[in-house]
Design a protein that fits this description.
The complex is a heterodimer of chains A (445) and B (264). By secondary structure, chain A is mainly alpha-helical. Chain A contains 17 helices and two strands. The chains are: A mainly alpha (445), B alpha/beta (264).
């Protein structure tokens, strides 16, 4: 509904210079709004939605690419550094977009309902958490008893290598988990993956004995980050201070670095996903999703094809896990609960299963809803409670409103409502997947 | 040596003998039909042949090698393609893509070639697309390459399923009730298509069919099944006159078939 309305509106301005002007105006307006009203959620939404305008207008691809890069690499980071909360929001959007893109391969392309996807995210995170902290030397100490002056196993810069390693290890885990799991179909697969997801979390919780590998429920900290050259911070402070308005700290610069790294990963993921989708393997995935029996009769090996989907999807989660461990410097089993898997699944379904722009939009929508809209609404209700305002007609004083009613706590209910509404009105998602139209000159024949 | 040689094939489901001691042999380049009343075990026979069911006992030798116990995808790669009784297309894929999936076993592109769109990949895809278009036209589908399979009318879906099966360049084509739900005109067209496939491509065809006009017109051999057993085999003329067949099943069918032929 959102997109079709958008398309109607935009079709009128789809000729001549209009698309270009529209995009630039939207970006400019969004930037201006966020600049003048740094606390307004609406202003931020206007800015972020310019990606949508950019996506839907009919314009030259090079222009779209350039404008998108300008937004993602220049404008948004600048605004993020100015208001560090936005940096957190866009970082989370980027992380979840990458996760959703990975799950999209498994659920959207290959049609395998995986309810334990977050397990691979955990594998990546614990991989760097173990090797990038003091945990290696703390292996023989029970949680809480290790001395604080243990050395670090690897230098922080090994992080970059571990991003690649995270891809390999998570893909490998995907294959190991997939081998027994992928022989079952449909509902059974959902149940078994749910179980495996929980197994990984429980393992993280309990592998503090006999060898302390994960430090149990307390989690691992501190996890190292790559080194930040002093010069970079100085350079940013000396040249960009007038734009930003305050001195940028090293912590801010790290947040920026991880956001930009997440962007790079997303670009790679989109590249890989698009290329695989339009190949023998991608077609085999879709065929398996559409009809397993017919697919195997065409010579498609089911288990191998599904394993490939599992491995590719897992590898995306793995690299994001490594990134998360370094950016948070702290990892605990709590971050990898079943609700996280469900959250990513909701993003895929809401955005459009099998659609790359769709799942990114889904990830952005859910993240903004979680971090900004719900919390903003909670704050607003708290303010109302503290005021003397009264709801007219029914004469209800806001201060009598139960403190139990906190929208930020209703995330799960919201997921449920979103899923139900989407399934009824738009089961194919906000931006539905489309098949590539081939240029075939069929009129001749 | 026969292309397909089956000896004493058995398959039971619980206490039900779906296929019982069936012998069957088919020479390269022939068109043969399997007929029999509903529940006679015809589709089970196809499923055992394509590896969807594993037979309890018996031998299936295809192109000189045993294929018993092989996975369906391996059997497909050996050169057996099939269509299904109730059409099983990849609904959300385009017509061209359906045919490309049919060519799956012939693609040689590697992951690296795919990711970086190396010349080998591009050539292979372009060549496959060209072949797919050719096949589309061969089975009589025009200007629908970019349509989703689910949007095609029924008759075209049947044709697409045949094109997809042909895309694998099989040695043996199994057709499960290909004329079901078609009007006489469509039936005539598709019957001619099968003859062309055999004559021009040299593909051996085995079909299950209830429509006696089709069966009697194109079959060179007919195998009759009832209650999981083969009760007769022979040329159309022999089957028509076989008292066992008339008694078991063809009683009405044979009369109808002869009647229709005399009308034609």
């Amino acid at each position: 509904m959102v997109s079709s309305h958008f398309e109607d509106l935009l079709s009128r301005f789809s000729r001549g210079p209009w698309p270009y002007l529209l995009v630039l105006a939207h970006i400019a307006a969004g930037t201006q709004l966020v600049y003048t009203q740094p606390r307004s959620i609406l202003a931020f939404l206007v800015l972020v939605s310019s990606f949508l305008t950019l996506y839907f207008v009919r314009a030259d691809l090079r222009f779209k690419f350039f404008a998108g890069a300008l937004l993602a690499v220049v404008i948004i980071p600048l605004i993020g550094v100015r208001n560090i909360f936005y940096l957190e929001v866009i970082f989370q959007i980027a992380v979840f977009a990458a996760l959703a893109l990975g799950l999209n391969i498994v659920v959207g392309f290959a049609g395998l309902l995986d309810l334990g996807y977050v397990a691979f995210y955990a594998v990546g995170a614990y991989l760097w958490a173990f090797f990038g902290s003091q945990q290696f030397y703390a292996m023989y100490y029970a949680p809480g008893t290790q001395p604080s002056d243990l050395p670090f196993l690897l230098p922080g810069d090994a992080f970059y290598m571990f991003m690649l390693l995270g891809v390999v290890v998570a893909a490998f885990t995907g294959i190991i988990l997939g081998l027994p799991v992928l022989r079952v179909r449909g509902d059974y697969l959902a149940i078994v993956t749910l179980g495996f997801g929980e197994v990984i979390r429980v393992l993280a919780n309990n592998l503090d004995k006999p060898l302390n590998l994960t430090n149990g429920p307390q989690g691992i900290t501190p996890i190292q980050r790559p080194t930040m050259p002093e010069g970079v911070v100085e350079f940013v402070n000396s040249t960009l201070q007038p734009l930003i308005g305050h001195r940028v700290t090293v912590a801010d610069m790290y947040n920026l670095l991880f956001y930009l790294l997440a962007l790079v990963v997303i670009v790679v993921i989109i590249f890989v996903t698009r290329r695989l989708d339009d190949s023998k393997l991608g077609r085999a995935w879709t065929a398996v999703r559409e009809d397993e029996t017919a697919a195997i009769a065409q010579g498609i090996p089911l288990v191998k094809t599904k394993l490939a989907a599992f491995a590719v999807g897992a590898s995306f989660a793995g690299v994001m896990g490594v990134l998360l461990a370094a950016s948070r410097t702290f990892i605990s089993p709590e971050s990898f609960s079943f609700m996280q898997s469900i959250g990513v699944l909701v993003m895929v379904i809401l955005g459009g299963s099998g659609s790359i722009p769709g799942v990114i939009l889904g990830a952005a929508t859910i993240t903004i809803l979680n971090l900004q809209v719900l919390q903003g609404f909670s704050l607003y209700l708290t303010e109302l409670r503290q005021s003397d305002a009264i709801i007219p007609i029914i004469n209800f004083a806001w201060k009598d409103l139960s403190t139990q009613l906190d929208p930020a706590k209703y995330q799960k209910m919201l997921f449920g409502i979103i899923l139900i509404v989407m399934m009824i009105f738009r089961p194919e998602g906000m931006i539905p997947a489309t098949r590539r139209r081939r240029k075939i000159d069929q009129e001749e024949n | 040596m026969a292309l397909l040689d089956i000896t004493r094939l058995n398959k039971t489901f619980g206490g039900l003998k779906a296929i019982s001691e069936v012998d069957f042999s088919l020479e390269q380049g022939r068109i043969a039909s399997i007929i029999g009343p509903n529940g006679a075990g015809k589709t089970t026979f196809f499923n055992a042949l394509t590896g969807i069911y594993r037979p309890d006992s018996g031998q299936i030798v295809f192109n000189g090698k045993s294929i018993v116990g092989l996975r369906p995808d391996k059997i497909a790669a050996r050169g057996i393609s099939r269509t299904f009784q109730n059409i099983r297309l990849f609904q959300e894929m385009t017509v061209i893509e359906n045919i490309l999936v049919g060519m799956h076993v012939h693609f040689r592109q590697s992951a690296v070639q795919t990711l970086f769109r190396l010349p080998f990949f591009r050539d292979e895809e372009a060549e496959a697309e060209r072949k797919a278009l050719e096949l589309m036209h061969y089975v009589g589908l025009k200007k629908v390459g970019n349509e989703l399979a689910k949007n095609l009318p029924y008759g075209m879906q049947r044709r697409l399923e045949i094109a997809r099966a042909l895309a694998a360049e099989p040695l043996l084509l199994l057709l499960d009730e290909p004329a079901a739900g078609m009007n006489p005109h469509e039936t005539e067209e598709i019957t001619r298509l099968f003859q062309n496939i055999r004559d021009e491509m040299g593909i051996t065809i085995l079909l299950i069919e209830h429509d006696m006009r089709v069966v009697m017109k194109i079959s060179e051999e007919i195998c009759v099944m009832d209650y999981g057993q083969k009760i007769a085999e022979g040329t159309p003329a022999e089957i028509r006159g076989n008292s066992k067949v008339i008694e078991a099943y063809l009683g009405r069918g044979a009369v109808a078939g002869q009647h229709e032929e005399s009308v034609a």
